[in-house]
Every structure is written in structure tokens, then in C-alpha cells.
């Protein structure tokens, strides 16, 4: 079957392309936002990539068109599909119907932590010899790709609450039918499609309804939003994971930076998480308990943690120049921004934060009043006042000391960072996009090389 994927370079759709190819389908795809790491991964797998959304990309007609959720009415490819009566579906629906229907699905959901936890879980199952399939919204370094079919019964998936397609406004995760479900946290996000927190909770409760009675839900036991969602009705055994005394399983960090995991009357388990911060201890704990549900002993999972090599764009070290280390992180919500900076706070030298307010929610200004507090752990803050951003980043960050440096374009921002950075500093660049190549531009500038405009 020839499948053509519209929006193929999105993290979900790119992974879907790899799975479809591995399942024996001919895959082509179109996108206008083609950038690494997804574009590199697709090219390595010889997927036929076409720039833009020209109707000619759909000639001769494929057997089915899979439409990404970033596309809407008015897009020339979408209009051509509808006018010509081509067969089409959403990515989540195609995945659920064709590849997940006979698998034990382990789904990782929540506003934050999905990609890292799903990657950790897939690696723990791999370490245990279970050869799982997986699809995550990033590229786990242990696997070098964001998706694979696997030949075992288990499939790990990052379960996103964003909608499925312009014609299917249900959250993606409704199509996945998990038997093991992690609910990390529920916060207000995706303001472009959800009017309020209650609308997001409603989608999460639809997800809860799909988990069978002989499955397991591992839920954040500290967050009222999660408790309220489960309180709407739950028919599945639930483990509450968190830091509070009422949780079934508890995690924290000891003075040596090690994660301590406690459950019931069992002897506390200790391991060094492969990524820093309390939020990553939560990610590790959730992955360990989810793997335990499919038969992987906690001791095996703890051993696996030592071999986990991280995920691209999740506190990924992009390079060092002039004695300055430059990290890349996907954080774009105030909670995630602060958690990332707090995790990086211990260490030598100063911590410099660089932010691109790029997500739809950020562009709408929904969280601008929380930005200054989220960025407060940094010693210096740099931000982009991107085109089309209708609120003032400088005003939002006015309370920071020292004052934030705000630039109108990436070359100017790079020069401001270069002027202030000094040997020993760590720079954390945070964006959910390519940030116009800022990471490479900054490393070149720090190295004394010419920066292209």
C-alpha cells in the first residue's frame, strides 16, 4: 500500500512514517517545516520527502493519505484530497487500527515528561530483552530513531492530548487503547484548541475510559488536577506515584543526587537517574513501575537506567566552544522551563537561559505572566521577540534581575549572548522549534567563527 503523509516532519507523523515503512508500506510525505532531527532521520530511512503541499505530490494518487493535525481547510493538499475523493485518515487512527490493535500498549501521557519517560520505558523493556515497539516524540539516543515496530508483544507510545486532525478533534491518545497508562500531570496547555483546563481533563477522562479493568494506571498522586480527572470515574487499578505521604509509591532525591524509590513496606531502592532534577526522578519512577507491570523486575529496570543515553532535544549537549557549554531543550511551558533550569542549577559556572516563546499557547500570551518566575533560576536570561508575537516579551520579563536581554531576531540574540558569556558558563536553549539554527550559530560565534545571517 502506498501511503502519503501530509505533515510528515512532525514528531508523531515522522515516527509513523518509519513504522509504516517497517510494516512493508511504500511511504512518501510532504511538509513545509523540514528540519533536524526528524528530517535527518527520515532521510536516513530513505523516506521520499517533498517540500510544500503541492497537489502534484498526490499524483498519481496514493492508496491512502494520512493527514497531520497541523493541516487545515484551505491547505492546497487538503483541498485536493477532498475534491478528488481520495481516501484519507488521521495518523493516530491509522496507527491504532493497523499497528496497535493486537499489541499490549504502554502509553505515557501528561502535559510534561512524556517523551523522556516513554524513551526510558522503551529502553528498560529493550534492556530486559523484550524488543518492544515504540513511537515517541523525539529521538532516543539508545535507538537512534523515534519509532520501530519491534517483534515483542509490547508497544510503548507517547500519548499526546493534542487533537488528531482537522476532521477529528479528539485527542490523539483516544485511538491508542492502552493496557498500561501513565498520567504524569495535567495542566492547561494547547490554548489554540482547548478553551480551559476542564476541556483537557475531559479528554484525559475519555482516555481513562479506554483502559481495561485488568490493566493499570500509574497516576501522579500529588496533583489535584489528576485526582479530579480520575474522580470522574475509573474502572482500572491505579497506583499513585509522587512525593506525598499518601502516595502508593514515592520518589525523592537524596543528598548525593540519587533517586530513592519507596513503595509499601518494600526496602527503598536507590539509583542515580541518568538525567538531573526531581522531574527526571519522576520520569524514571514512572517508567520503572510501568515496566514492572509487564513483568520486568524493578532491579532490572534500575540496572537499565545506567545505560540510558538520553533523548535529542531533552537537555542535549549540542557542543562546547570558548569554554561555554550549549544545551538544547524542548521546554516551552512555564512548569517545564522552571523544572529544566532547577535541574541545571547545581553545577559549575553561571546558568544562562535562552527562550523562544514559540508554542501556540505561548504565542497567544496565555502563560506570559508566569514566564519571569519560570526563568528566575537562571543567572541571565535572553529571549526572542519573534515575528507575529503580539505581546511584549520584555514587559513579561521586566521583573528579572539582572534584566532580561530581548532581541528581535536570532543573529542579534546570538551576539548578545556571545558578548555576555564567559568560560565555564552553561547555556540552556529552550524552544519547541528549530530556533532558526541558534545553537549552531551560537557555537560558531563563541568559537570566533563567522555567523551566517
What would you call the structural class? Answer: alpha/beta
Strand-residue proportion:
15-25%
CATH homologous superfamily title of the largest domain: Mur-like, catalytic domain
Give the tally of β-strands: 23
Rg from alpha-carbon coordinates: 22 Å
Rough outline: globular
CATH class of the largest domain: Alpha Beta
Structural descriptors:
single chain; 453 residues; alpha/beta; Rossmann fold; UDP-N-acetylmuramoyl-L-alanine:D-glutamate ligase; Protein-Tyrosine Phosphatase, Chain A; 3 domains; 10-stranded mixed beta sheet; 6-stranded mixed beta sheet; 15 helices; 31% helix; 23% strand; globular
Characterization of this structure:
By secondary structure, this protein is an alpha/beta fold. It folds into three domains: 90 residues, 3-Layer(aba) Sandwich (Rossmann fold), CATH 3.40.50.720; 206 residues, Mur-like, catalytic domain (UDP-N-acetylmuramoyl-L-alanine:D-glutamate ligase); 131 residues, Protein-Tyrosine Phosphatase, Chain A, CATH 3.90.190. It has 15 helices and 23 strands. A ten-stranded mixed β-sheet has the order 8-7-9-6-12-13-14-15-16-17, sandwiched between helices. A six-stranded mixed β-sheet has the order 18-19-23-20-21-22, with helices on both faces. Strand 15 and strand 16 form a beta hairpin. It is globular and about 55 Å long.
Summarize the model shown.
By secondary structure, this protein is α/β, with parallel strands linked by helices. The protein contains 15 helices and 23 strands. Helix 6 packs across helix 7.
SSE topology:
Layout: E1 2-6, H1 11-22, E2 26-31, H2 38-44, E3 48-51, E4 64-67, H3 76-84, E5 88-90, H4 91-98, E6 104-109, H5 114-127, E7 133-135, E8 147-148, E9 154-158, E10 163-165, E11 168-171, E12 180-183, H6 197-209, E13 216-220, H7 224-230, E14 238-242, E15 249-253, E16 259-263, E17 269-271, H8 278-293, H9 298-305, E18 316-321, E19 324-329, H10 334-344, E20 351-355, H11 360-363, H12 368-375, E21 380-384, H13 393-396, E22 405-407, H14 410-420, E23 426-430, H15 438-446
Parallel strand pairs: 1-2, 1-4, 2-3, 4-5, 6-9, 6-12, 7-9, 12-13, 13-14, 14-15, 19-23, 20-21, 20-23, 21-22
Antiparallel strand pairs: 7-8, 10-11, 15-16, 16-17, 18-19
Helix pairs in contact: 1-2, 5-8, 5-9, 6-7, 8-9, 10-12, 14-15
Amino acid at each position: 500500500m502506498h501511503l502519503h503523509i501530509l505533515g510528515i516532519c512532525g514528531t508523531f507523523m515522522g515516527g509513523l512514517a518509519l513504522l509504516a515503512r517497517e510494516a512493508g508500506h511504500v511511504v512518501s510525505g510532504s511538509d513545509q517545516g523540514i528540519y533536524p532531527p526528524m528530517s535527518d532521520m527520515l532521510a536516513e530511512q530513505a523516506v521520499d520527502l517533498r517540500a510544500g503541499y503541492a497537489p502534484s505530490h498526490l499524483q498519481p494518487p496514493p492508496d491512502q493519505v494520512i493527514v497531520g493535525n497541523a493541516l487545515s481547510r484551505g491547505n492546497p493538499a487538503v483541498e485536493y484530497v477532498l475534491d478528488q475523493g481520495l481516501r484519507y485518515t488521521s495518523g493516530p487512527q491509522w496507527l491504532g487500527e493497523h499497528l496497535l490493535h493486537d499489541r499490549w500498549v504502554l502509553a505515557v501521557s501528561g502535559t510534561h515528561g512524556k517523551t523522556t519517560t516513554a524513551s526510558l520505558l522503551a529502553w528498560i523493556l529493550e534492556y530486559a530483552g523484550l524488543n518492544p515497539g515504540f513511537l515517541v516524540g523525539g529521538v532516543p539516543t539508545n535507538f537512534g530513531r523515534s519509532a520501530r515496530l519491534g517483534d515483542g508483544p509490547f508497544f510503548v507510545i507517547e500519548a499526546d492530548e493534542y487533537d488528531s486532525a482537522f476532521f477529528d478533534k479528539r485527542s490523539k491518545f483516544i485511538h491508542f487503547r492502552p493496557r498500561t497508562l501513565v498520567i504524569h500531570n495535567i495542566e492547561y496547555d494547547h490554548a489554540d484548541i482547548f478553551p480551559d483546563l476542564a476541556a483537557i481533563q475531559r479528554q484525559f477522562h475519555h482516555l481513562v475510559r479506554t483502559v481495561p479493568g485488568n490493566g493499570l494506571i500509574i497516576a501522579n498522586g500529588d496533583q489535584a488536577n489528576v485526582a479530579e480527572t480520575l474522580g470522574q470515574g475509573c474502572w482500572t487499578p491505579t497506583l499513585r506515584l509522587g512525593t506525598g505521604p499518601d502516595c502508593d509509591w514515592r520518589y525523592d532525591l537524596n543528598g548525593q543526587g540519587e533517586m530513592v524509590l519507596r513503595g509499601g513496606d518494600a526496602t527503598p531502592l536507590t539509583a542515580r537517574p541518568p538525567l538531573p532534577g526531581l522531574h527526571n526522578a519522576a520520569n524514571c519512577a514512572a517508567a520503572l513501575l510501568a515496566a514492572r507491570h509487564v513483568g520486568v523486575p524493578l532491579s532490572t529496570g534500575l540496572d537499565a537506567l545506567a545505560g540510558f543515553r538520553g533523548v535529542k532535544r531533552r537537555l542535549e549537549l549540542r557542543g562546547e566552544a570558548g569554554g561555554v557549554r550549549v544545551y538544547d531543550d524542548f521546554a516551552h511551558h512555564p512548569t517545564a522551563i522552571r523544572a529544566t533550569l532547577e535541574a541545571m542549577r547545581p553545577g559549575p559556572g553561571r546558568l544562562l537561559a535562552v527562550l523562544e516563546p514559540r508554542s501556540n499557547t505561548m504565542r497567544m500570551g496565555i502563560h506570559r505572566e508566569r514566564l519571569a518566575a519560570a526563568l528566575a533560576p537562571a543567572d541571565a536570561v535572553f529571549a526572542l521577540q519573534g515575528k507575529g508575537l503580539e505581546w511584549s516579551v520584555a514587559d513579561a520579563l521586566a521583573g528579572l534581575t539582572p534584566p532580561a536581554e530581548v532581541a528581535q531576531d536570532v543573529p542579534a540574540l546570538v551576539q548578545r549572548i556571545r558578548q555576555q558569556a564567559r568560560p565555564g558558563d552553561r547555556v540552556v536553549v529552550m524552544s519547541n522549534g528549530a530556533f532558526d539554527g541558534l545553537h549552531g550559530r551560537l557555537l560558531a560565534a563563541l568559537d570566533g567563527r563567522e555567523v551566517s545571517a
